[in-house]
Amino acid sequence: MAIATHDFSALMEITHRPDLVFVRGEGSWLWDDRGRRYLDFIQGWAVNALGHCPPEVVKALTEQAATLINASPAFHNAAGVRLARLLVSHCALDRVFFANSGAEANEGAIKLARKWGRLHRGGAYRMITFDGGFHGRTIATMSASGKPGWDRLYAPQVDGFVKVPLNDLGAVARAIDAQTVAVMLEPIQGEAGVFPAERAFVQGLRALTRERGLLLILDEIQTGIGRTGRLFGYQHHDIEPDVMTLAKGLGGGVPLAALLAREEVCCFEPGDQGGTFNGNPLMAAVGCAVVEAVTAPGFLDRVVARGAQLRAGLEILSARFGLGAVRGEGLLLALALGDRVSGPDVVTAAREAGLLVNAPRPDTLRFMPALTVSREEIDQMLAMLGEVLAAAI
Ligand code: PLP
Q: Where would a tag sit more exposed on the chain, N or C end, judged by fewer CB atoms within 10 A?
């Protein structure tokens, strides 16, 4: 039976998707089924760290698929053991639990903190999280998120999340009570529109959580694995968290996430946590290939250089069209549009011109290209965006 590729009626409508069907990707480029090519600065929502179909990921997937796909989470497998060692060798955290999505990794972090609170903090379970924060779409991680409207969408929320404004250390201090077990934040709030936690705030949080005996949990799902020009976003601030979650870039496009914690915090006992697909060798082999690529000599220097180029180009566009500030770090950048033009309108016009960018809020464009994006591709994107803005303003 011939299936009409553009008949989307069998899919649940979970977002407004354009009438496009993508069939092929390579590096910074995507092709649709009509043969049209797009310069992709969304990259699967900041997941394709090495771009579309990079040779390292294709090799890891195909070789692992031909060797061992899933040995069961009840057994160790070589790729999973290797990836765990690789990750802990790059930070001060000691152990890893693998998951399949960012939300699931954060769900694990919440469980770990609650269990740790039960064992070491007299049953404390509340977490301080931040207005605008985004931690995933399970019920608990939605409850942890500070996205406007989410408190009502699937009410009632999970109890135990207290929201305070980002970069307000006094508000965090005032929100701490005997039931508080942890503070959880993104080093840069990505989905909210790319709002960085300030260095002094992150350092103050580290000191405050230490002083009060609380866990500092960093959600590095969007900022981790080189996105900001360092392997982990917190490394810009010379601190170490107690717990960290990774996803997106870690899998280079495949579903892979990780929860990492300091030895003293690792209080899961057999049976407390798990999942059928968790830590499967197929995904773990890809994770190894991605982490090896991102930590290879010179890789992060190139991310920093491309990030600086993109920032400078966006600042020139902002000055030319009277737009707002450029926010973010490395290759996670946003351009504030002000009220001269709407983000969704620019996104649509850009797509029609063959450029994929994202508007996380109506007054903001977000750029999350492959970490391997070339100088020429950034120049090309800036030129295309300039033409779109010139036509729109
Ligand atoms: N945390 C952060 C900071 C994110 O940006 C996201 C996704 O955008 C998530 C968690 C959820 O990850 P996932 O969509 O893989 O569940």
A: N
**Where would I find the H helices in the chain?**
43-46, 55-65, 78-88, 102-120, 139-144, 150-153, 169-175, 199-212, 281-294, 299-321, 343-352, 375-392
Same domain for 184 and 41: no
**Ligand 1 centroid, distance to 100 Cα (angstroms):** 11
| Confidence (pLDDT) at 2 | 47
46 with 167, same domain: the answer is: no
For residue 137, give the ligand 1 atom closest to its CA: 16
- At 354 the pLDDT is 98
Residue 50 CA to residue 43 CA, distance in Å, equals: 9
Query: Residue 4: is its pLDDT beyond 80?
Result: no
Q: How far apart are CA 67 and CA 60, in angstroms?
A: 10
Rounded distance from Cα 102 to ligand 1 centre (Å): 5
Please indicate whether residue 247, judged by its CB atom, sits closer than 6 Å to ligand 1. Answer: yes
Instruction: Name the band, by pLDDT with cuts 50, 70 and 90, for residue 3.
Output: low
Query: Which residues form the domain of 336?
Result: 22-54+298-392
